[in-house]
């Protein structure tokens, strides 16, 4: 028998994983944009 708490836990796990990926992506974008701004000068 499945409990709704299992679904909630799975959703939170997905959200946490997604936020970790998003943070890494944002850092990569910041690094790239800094390189572009240096190249533009």
Automatic annotation (TrEMBL):
This is Uncharacterized protein.
């Amino acid at each position: 028998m499945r409990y709704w708490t299992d679904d909630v836990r799975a959703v939170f796990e997905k959200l946490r994983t997604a936020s970790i990926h998003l943070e890494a992506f944002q850092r990569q974008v910041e690094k790239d944009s800094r390189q572009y701004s240096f190249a533009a000068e």
